[in-house]
Amino acid sequence: MTLDIKPTEYFSLATVTSKKSDIVKAIITTDTHTQNNLNKQVIEYLYTDMLLSGSGSYSREEFLNAVNMLGASIDIDVTAGKVSFILRSTTDQFGKLLALFKAMLQEPTFPAVELKRVKNTTLNQLHQAKEDSKNIALDELRNLFYGVDDRKYTYSIEESLTEVPKVTATQLKKFHQSVMANRWFCSIGSDKAAISAFEKYLRTIKTQSLEVEGVHQPKPPSPVLHLQSIPSRQNIDFNIGLPLPITRSHPDYIPLGFAVAVLGKVGGFAGRLMSTVREKEGLTYGIYSQLEGFSSEEQGYLRIMTFFAPGKTLEGLTSTFREIKKLYTSGVSQAEVEAFKTILSTQQSLIKDSSGRTLADLHSYHCEGFSIGDMEEYKQALGDVTRADVNRVIEAYLDPSLMSISGAGPTNSVQKDLRTWHQSM
Amino acid sequence: MSKPANTKKKSTSLKHVPGFTHVKTVANIDEYILKRNGLRVLYHNRADTEVVTTNITYLVGAIDETLGKSGLAHMLEHMLFKPTKADIKAKITNGRAMKFEREVGCILNANTWKDRTTYYFSYPAKYVDTALNIEAQRMTGVVLNQKELGPEQNNVLSEFDMYNGDPYFAITVQLVSTAFLSHPYGHETIGYREDIEDYTPERLQQFYTDYYRPDNAVMMVIGDIDKKTALEAIKKQFTAIKNPATPVPRHHIREPKQEGIRRVSIERNSTTNILSIGFKHAGLGTVEWLTTSIMLNVLTSGPESVFEKLLVDTGKVASIDSSLEPTRDTNLAVMHFTLAPGHSHGELEKIVLETIEKQSVSDITQLVKKVKANMLTEELFSRTSSMQIAQELTEYVASGNWENYAKTPDLLKTITPKMVVDCMKTHFKPDNLTIGTFIGK
After folding, report:
1. From A69's CA, which of B185, B226, B240, B392 has a CA 20 to 30 Å away?
2. Contact at 8 Å (CB) between B415 and B364?
3. Could you tell me which chain A residue has the CA closest to the CA of B268?
């Protein structure tokens, strides 16, 4: 596999080229965020289905039929203002899929009858989401860190339920125009012929490249305990963290990511939290930490995610904060630094096992504006981290007394004890 | 004349590896048996990735558990990440498997299913001996005592609560236990909470002794490693391990005949309401299983499916979910319909069953074509990493014939719309149905 990133006037193209491939996967991502508001958030909920609901001479039914007859798929994801299109097909059907994709993007009809249907299905999905304790715990944590105009702020389900009926086709069309106008980050994995067809296609469809500046409203850290009662769940989902005042471009970002991996590397058992809170103490099935929401322009936050049975919540949170405090006061050891350098380096090697993972990894760097050289330099920098750097950033950024806790689940029976415990911290 | 003879000789010699019997080669996957103890090996080369996945599957799962012992196979899986006897001797405090992850960063995990328990590592090729050594130690040297079991038991209970908080899991547990009166597929792999609380080291030890042995395991090596190196490494680590003198215990249980629809319900303080319709189906690796899979996709998968159009698009249902498990024996597939506010379980049940009853070949011909095309594309995508290949192959190994892994794309092509309609007629008869209702109060 050969990797490349090539900027052009209106888009940039990252490629994972194989000598021969039976399949193609292509991803296009664009950032539409300007200023978050309830209406925009709800438009994002409706947009994916509406874009697939009629294009040019195709009705929704005809369009879906045409895509599925190819054994192909077009998936659309909108998260916090970022829109991604994911195309998958066999290599021999890719040309036909691109023709359909072109119709979808250039001639969407947003018909009234489909808008009525999509509003209805969205309202039902929102009702269903009322018990999604994992997502609710996360949304509430982020709402503590960011103002309402920030892309990371999420309006409540109740607010969304009132806004969905108000969305118009004109608003959806305007949102689509911004998708088409803004700069595209396109990545593809396949053989040369499919990649060449994709590039040719992009050159015909992409004739603008607007750079938009989005509102970013981080707040200073303030330790809050937020609990939401969802009695039907068995465990309480917890998200713990704090906003961090740096962007991905800041020199502290890499050692900070390293420190957070030592604390709770996602996946597996290597992090301190997994080896103590789970392995030694048996208090939860999983507990991980990571940096989220960073870009070269926007600051992000630390998130620790776990869950506890109500009866073990106090013990679980005490144990979790003991580990964070230990990291904050004593830092990491030289042995941990060496071990995690190897771990992170192995993780990079394992990406090569899968063309899909290679493409996903490349696309994430590509969307941040990295060149291949930048990406390699960045990965190399992970291996150059020193213990002193890691311990310095831990002391600067990971103060447990500034961390907030957001819990969602059967909280009623433990609420009082948790508030007392939180105050005593 | 001599050229073909030489070619044949070369081909034969490539398959011959000292210490192993070559069983067959299908779709570039070689099957061998380690002569000394019957350990089966599947080898598949994926060049130029520098990555290897090793995956050992023990043919033991929920199917081997009896009443009061549900979830034992899964609990044991957790215990194999604890220090083994060899680890204790070598003073490797957290155990060799954890050490491998914590020092090297390999991907490691395990999972237990109805017919199998699987352990896997994915790592840079140079660590193959380390990974195989860990598996060999775990095959013979597990340490089961209360000190190690206690915290892990709590972790499994935490895992159980995580699943059980999900209304779909909760109703599925009740559904399968209602559908199967006698067959062990009537309990979920994680077991019942009450059984998990009652595990003892002795109970686990017996289970381990019975099932963790070379002649009940399949070792897969998939990735960027040549066959000779892979097989020699396996021989080095496993050849000394002996099988117990007694055969692997198996329970041959025939499920009593069902006569009419079976029903079960759960009431919880919740805003969720679910109608779950379960039906029994044939095991993996059969044309019937694939036909059932296509049928389920036709009915419930994606915006063009019968019930998305009929129920989601019209606002009667918020979402539809379905499951069809890859198991060896007849199992229960389930369709979950999450009701939209204002609709009732009874109303939905009537619509669903009547709709299925009136499906004809002409109604679904186009849909079957599309589902098959999508499944064939998915098969191609699923074979692009050593871990994915190992995962899919594992299910075929556990179902009794891994060769069906290679045959699936061709078998898919043979399934016709009429076969799918016939599948609906036979599977949705009252004596094959179990219906569950999750009622939010």
Report:
1. B392
2. no
3. A232
